[in-house]
Amino acid sequence: MNLIIIGPQGSGKSTQAELLAKKVNLSHLETGELYRRIAKENSLLGKKIKQFLEKGQLVSDRVHNKVLREEIKKPKYKNGFVLDGSPRTLRQAKSQPFKTDRVFYLDVSDEENIKRLMKRGREDDTPKLIARRLQLYHQKTEPVLDYYRQQGILEKVDGEKPIEEIYQDIVTRLKK
Description:
Blueprint: E1 2-6, H1 13-24, E2 27-30, H2 31-39, H3 44-54, H4 61-71, E3 81-84, H5 90-94, E4 102-107, H6 110-120, H7 127-151, E5 154-158, H8 163-175
Parallel strand pairs: 1-3, 1-4, 2-3, 4-5
């Protein structure tokens, strides 16, 4: 079973994906963490990804698909996974190298996301880069929601509730 948690930066995707992965006994695959790990490598791919991240840009579809395709070959993903941070574009969604069973969309306002991201304090969470990433989310990622909605696998979840309530909502919807 392959599940996706989708939403803007700061929506709590990683928190919910981690909780859900434990609940359904699957590996949690976080593309943001994967990118940051690769960006630290002194490789051509690492340097390329680092440039995207430093500019607050989305990793190109080609690079994203290559990284994801390689990652999911690992034995820990053989029974499926809970993915967060991907897909970020319609092209990525349409060319995923796996079947998607369910998508949980964490709906959170820009104002709430900005508050959360400023508290998080990662080095790439500057006001300028946050604004850029939210703009990219609205432009590039929101069309992905319609793609999954049309397939009948999208579940919209209120991402501004307390963590435990969001988690319970997701688990209840998963059982349907």
